[in-house]
Amino acid sequence: MKTQQVIDFFKENNLFLDYMQAEKSTASSKEAASVVGCTTDEIAKSIIFESKRNAVLVLLEGDKKVDVGKLEKAVNSTVKKADPTFILQKTGFEVGGVAPVPNENVEIYIDNGIMKHEFVWASAGSKTAVIKLRTKGLEKALKAEIISASL
After folding, report:
1. What is this structure's pTM?
2. 3-147 CATH pick, 3.30.390.30, 3.40.50.300, 3.90.960.10, 3.30.470.20
3. Where exactly are the structural domains of the chain?
């Protein structure tokens, strides 16, 4: 999926607020926050895990880490952090540019910390593109479940 497809998806779901193509990397939460001028908790990072069933994407605040125990309980499966090849194969995106979009190969979960924000910035599908999204309605558009998965 290309950046324009990511933007179109969020526009169609009335979640799109803004888009930025940066000249420098937005691959990490700190880099993205610096580029857009926000705090790292306003960055929604996509972390990919591998379960016995499928790929698992956890969308969480950029300053948080995934609590694997909480995640395993929520998804009712053991998980391990995915490697770059698996991530590209399952999501179509490279590490540092994984956009949170529906995908039949990926189960999506949103950490409840994201929902305290009115909007967040997420990857738009590349290591230099970010998209500003409304959080209200995000779980419905992504066909995601809201869970508690952060440390």
Report:
1. 0.95
2. 3.90.960.10
3. 3-147
Query: Distance between CA atoms of 51 and 120, rounded to whole angstroms?
Result: 27
**Strand (E) or helix (H) holding 47:** strand 43-51
- Tens of pLDDT along the chain (151 residues) come to 689 999 999 999 999 999 999 999 999 999 999 999 999 999 999 999 999 989 999 999 999 999 999 999 999 999 999 999 999 999 999 999 999 999 999 999 999 999 999 999 999 999 999 999 999 999 999 999 999 999 9
In the block, tokens 């972390």 appear at: 47
Question: How far is the C-alpha of 129 from the C-alpha of 112, rounded, in Å?
Answer: 24
